[in-house]
Design a protein that fits this description.
Elements lengths: L1 E5 L2 E8 L3 E6 L10 H7 L3 E6 L16 H15 L4 E6 L1 H12 L4 E7 L11 H4 L2 H8 L7 H6 L5 H8 L14 E6 L10 H5 L5 E6 L6 H4 L1 H13 L21
Parallel strand pairs: 3-4, 3-5, 5-6, 6-7, 7-8
Antiparallel strand pairs: 1-2, 2-4
Helix pairs in contact: 1-10, 2-3
């Protein structure tokens, strides 16, 4: 287990591969460990890091650090301690909100962002996030398979306050003023973060693109893991600053028209 200390508090992370740096940020259910398949795929060409946010996994619990702003500060201090410069971020759920907030406040650091289940409309989030213990959320969202076991087994480590406190600041982590290229992935059957309404999607700027995974729920990186990893590889391969709308129009990446 790899750790760093931030203000004498333990922050757990893991790393695979060599190359351009990419950081994986987990969601409200589980920890860094469910990113392992995506990290293994990315590590062919990248140095893939994944860390546990405050209150999750093996990172220390500290209720004073559970806001989105403090979680984004964790990312900033992690990058600084690890000597990482310009970076790609991949975030899921809570991690997606943290990634967008950090990209908006540090555009000189973040080269691109890929999110899964990004909560753009707080009022449409499932209310169960506020009322259901983390282990029960895992039972609700994840089938019992070897692939989902890492998220299921680490869910009970979560401080429920880390989930609740993050929900109050989601409005600050939207797409307003984002200049970084962003690719937003949504599971069509996600019961936690429904795909955004068409009115919102039609107003997105050129540097933001949305793709649906029609066979996925809240965990597209697990539900359609091979597809997710191929999409991530295509996105990372784009030249710096290029819109994800320039991705080759493979049939599986085409935007679904309602």
């Amino acid at each position: 287990m790899s750790v760093i200390l931030i203000d004498q508090k333990i922050v757990h992370y893991e790393v695979l591969g060599r190359g351009r740096p990419i950081i994986f940020l987990h969601g409200w259910v589980g920890s860094w460990r469910y990113w392992i398949p995506a990290m293994q795929a990315a590590s062919v060409n990248c140095r893939a890091y994944a860390l546990d946010l405050w209150g999750f996994g093996d990172t220390q619990k500290d209720p004073q650090r559970y806001s989105l702003a403090r979680q984004a500060e964790l990312v900033d201090r992690f990058l600084d301690q690890m000597g990482i410069g310009r970076v790609a971020l991949v975030g899921h759920g809570l991690g997606a909100a943290v990634a967008l907030l950090y990209a908006r406040t540090h555009p000189e650091v973040v080269d691109r962002v890929l999110t899964a289940g990004c909560p753009l409309e707080e009022q449409r989030l499932s209310p169960r996030l506020r009322t259901t213990p983390p282990a029960e959320l895992a039972d609700w969202l994840l089938g019992k398979t070897p692939l989902t076991e890492p998220a299921r087994s680490d869910a009970p480590k979560t401080d429920p306050a880390a989930v609740l406190n993050s929900l109050s600041g989601l409005a600050a982590a939207g797409l307003r003023d984002i200049t970084t290229p962003c690719l937003l992935v949504y599971g069509q059957n996600d019961p936690v973060v429904p795909p955004p309404e068409q009115d919102l999607l039609s107003s997105l700027p050129e540097q933001i693109h949305v793709i649906w995974f029609e066979q996925s729920g809240h965990f597209p990186m697990l539900d359609e893991g091979n597809k997710f990893s191929r999409l991530l590889a295509d996105f990372i391969a784009l030249p710096s600053g290029e819109s994800p709308r320039q991705l080759q129009l493979k049939e599986e990446w085409k935007r679904r028209v309602r």
